[in-house]
Amino acid sequence: MGSGKGSALRDLGLGEADERVYGALLRRRAPAVPDAAQLCRELGLTRGELARALARLREHGFTLPETGGPGGTGAAAAALPRPVPPAPAVRALIHRRQAELHSRAAELERLRRQADEIAEHLDPAPAVVPGALAGVEAVSGPRAIVRHVDQLLAGAEKEVLILDRPPYLNPWAVAGADPGTGIAALLERGVSVRVVLAREGLALPGRTRLLGPLVDRGLGVRVAADVPTKLIAVDGRDALLPPAGGADPTRAAVVVRDTLLQHVFRPLFEALWERALPLGGGGPRLSEEHRDLLGLLAGGFKDEAIARRLGVHVHTARRRISRLLDELGADTRFQAGAQAALRGWLAGS
């Protein structure tokens, strides 16, 4: 499985072995579902690998609960669980991921409130003051915040991640330079830069014109309907959360480091990145043919049944399926269903 094309499933918490087992269960529904030993031989897995894959599929809601009980013997012990159809399974998993996002966003707000309290009670003379939380400090004052952003970007060596939403503390330029200079300098130094931009930000004058040349230089940009916070993270070690009210000089920015960044903010960025659409994609228009095909694939129909439903030869149906997988950047039909659900192309997702 290609690392790029499989990324959606990895972000959903499934591995390659899990997907292969799930695909085999979908292809062979009862009464033709194989037993565990047969499936191990077919997929080249050990019994331990199969057991772990089945446990993950059960945990994520891709198989129905076993009816024989965990202590079954003989045929009952060797039997395999029945799969849940892809569409409801993926939708349910995405809803759980969304709940996790909301939880992380609530954690961001809690940290922001604590940073404001720190800024209120400490001597305002220093521009940067240590916070009461381990790995967290408050940066007070617009000039100090801009200076800290410049320092963060100047020290970047490998990667910069940005969540961008109004009101804006501009990370796109260094002080006194033309817009885009700061990001352009990073790209010229070989630093990877990815941005998740709130959809409303595209309406700002000159924003699309600014982004175009930067995308040509290698900037990764995706657009999300909602970005819960602003964030600038550098090399997985330092991150700055600009104040929610960018024009309010009394608000403090929050600087976080190391563990907090890795366990809260990096996962938040990656989850938003996976759900966002590439700049210019803006919700690709889905043809009626592909919409019908996606619905049939999500329902678990086999090629012959899909061909009958579409009124075409089975070879024609397979060619259409292949084109759809290419368009979605998917290696397998399950990946295609996951990608379609992530993009909101499946009804109710």
Give structural notes.
The chain is of the alpha+beta class. It folds into 3 domains: 7-84, Arc Repressor Mutant, subunit A; 91-278, Endonuclease Chain A (Endonuclease, Chain A), CATH 3.30.870.10; 288-342, Orthogonal Bundle (Arc Repressor Mutant, subunit A). The protein has helices at residues 7-11, 16-27, 36-43, 47-59, 74-78, 86-121, 142-154, 181-188, 207-216, 259-275, 288-298, 303-310, 314-328, 333-342; strands at 128-130, 136-140, 159-164, 192-198, 220-224, 231-234, 238-241, 252-257, 277-278. Strands 1-2-8-7-6-3-4-5-9 form a 9-stranded mixed β-sheet, sandwiched between helices. The two termini are 25 Å apart.
Helix content, binned percent: 40-55%
As for the CATH topology of the largest domain, it is: Endonuclease, Chain A
Distance between the termini: 25 Å
What is the radius of gyration? Answer: 24 Å
Number of strands: 9
Q: Please give the CATH architecture of the largest domain.
A: 2-Layer Sandwich
- Run of helices and strands: HHHHHHEEHEHEHEEEEHEHHHH
Count of helical stretches? 14
C-alpha geometry: globular
Assign the CATH superfamily of the largest domain: Endonuclease Chain A
Query: Mind summarizing the main beta sheet?
Result: 9 strands, mixed
Give me the side-by-side strand order of the main sheet: 1-2-8-7-6-3-4-5-9
Amount of beta strand:
5-15%
CATH top level class name of the largest domain: Alpha Beta
Count of domains: 3
Secondary structural class: alpha+beta
Low-confidence stretches at least 5 residues in length (pLDDT < 50)? 1-7, 68-77, 122-133, 172-179
Protein name: HTH luxR-type domain-containing protein
Domain HTH luxR-type: 283-340
GO molecular function: DNA binding
GO biological process, one term: regulation of DNA-templated transcription
